[in-house]
Amino acid sequence: MLTDRMNERVVQAKAEGSTYLAIAGCILLILLGVFLMFTISAYGLVISVIGGYLIAHFKEGFNLEYEYTLTNGDIDIAKIFAKNRRKDVRSISADSITYINYVDSDRVKNDLDVKRGQAAIRYFSGKADDGQDVAIYSSEGNKESIDIINLDERCINHLKEVLKSKCDIKKVK
User: What are the DSSP E strand ranges found in 14-84?
Assistant: First the structure.
């Protein structure tokens, strides 16, 4: 009987820059609505209410988590907003993975500088006390990607066992 190896990990992440930009835009919309309400027309009230509604919607972006699901070397990454809205953002097949190592290794540091613009570099890392940022290199056709995720010891051991030849992690830090 075959059994699947599976690990899951959830890490807290910082809000994205687009969230801050959206909130700033909403505040400007509210200010515009207030200005219009007192100067020109009652439509300003509607604009202010819309701005308030959008702030309530975008503030979910401040409570952001990433969930990694590792199944037999395949990696699925999802964003979770305010613990109630989930969006699948990336799926990496084990067959497409070409290299795995810590982000602070010399090769990865060099590649992050050199390959900027040549490869898609995506950061799905968050803050976790028990984890380490790991770079996952993958290639699909002629598209090369480097994904940065934060894994704990269990997830790293999972990748080391399943993707032995592709994983250059010697010791778990």
Answer: 64-71, 74-81
Give the tens place of pLDDT for each residue, 96-146. Answer: 888 988 888 888 888 888 777 778 888 888 777 777 888 999 888 888 888
> In angstroms, what CA-CA distances link 8 with 80, 85, 114, 150?
14, 18, 31, 12
The helix (run of H) or strand (run of E) holding residue 122 is strand 120-124
- Predicted pLDDT at 173: 58
Cβ atoms of residues 114 and 75 within 8 Å: no
Q: Which two tokens stand for residue 56?
A: 């309530």
For residues 140, 142, 135, 171, the Cα torsion angle rounded to the nearest 10 degrees is 80
Residue with tokens 């190896």: 5
Q: Are 83 and 118 in contact (CB under 8 A)?
A: no
- Determine the residue type at 21: L
